[in-house]
Design goal:
The protein is of the alpha+beta class. The chain contains two helices and 13 strands; from the N terminus they run H-E-E-E-E-E-E-E-E-E-E-E-E-E-H. It is elongated.
């Protein structure tokens, strides 16, 4: 029994340490105010390399929600040389943009409206899927762009909706009873 307890304690510490490392390797999105800033890539197509400063080494955003909610807008847009494009991944899965367009200057914009997030912690990242071209026709292997994530609008818990419905029903019943 003592061996089993020791093994469980060691496993618990390992999981706690690895969980701390994962949390430190991402930029936190505040559910109440969202996040806005720059991201960078240094080695061509694939997952971005840095968020915020050009040397952070963080490649993901994380957001923790106590209850489910809707992020009204998640967007990534190019701002240096037209031609770069991006893909949005949430919890490791590709989320196709609801809107993609090139603005008047030819810069790419990808937008996702009303992203539903369940209660808990979520990982969000961007991948560079197209690269701007140099005058020689060769792609630029590095670049920078901007991302924005809106605040999250919470969804009332089913219990709150049920209590509200009971309250409305009770008020109606009391009014009806008074008129009789």
């Amino acid at each position: 029994m003592t061996k089993l307890m020791t093994i469980c304690a060691v496993l618990g510490m390992v999981l706690a340490i690895s969980g701390t490392e994962q949390a430190a390797a991402s930029v936190t999105i505040d559910p109440d105010s969202g996040w806005s800033g720059y991201f960078w890539w240094w080695d061509g197509l694939g997952q971005i390399d840095d968020i915020g400063t050009s040397s952070s080494g963080e490649t993901k955003w994380s957001i923790t929600l106590p209850i489910a909610g809707w992020m009204t807008l998640a967007t990534a847009y190019d701002l240096a040389i037209p031609g770069d494009e991006f893909a949005l991944y949430v919890d490791g899965g590709l989320i196709p943009w609801t809107t993609e367009y090139n603005d008047g200057s030819g810069f790419y914009h990808g937008e996702y409206d009303d992203l539903f997030l369940s209660a808990g912690t979520h990982s969000i990242t961007l991948y560079t899927t197209e690269l701007a071209l140099q005058s020689t026709g060769e792609p630029y292997m590095q670049g920078g762009a901007r991302a924005e994530f809106s605040s999250v609008q919470p969804i009332p818990a089913p219990g709150a909706i049920l209590l509200g419905g009971i309250g409305v029903g009770l008020v109606g019943w009391l009014r009806r009873r008074r008129t009789l």
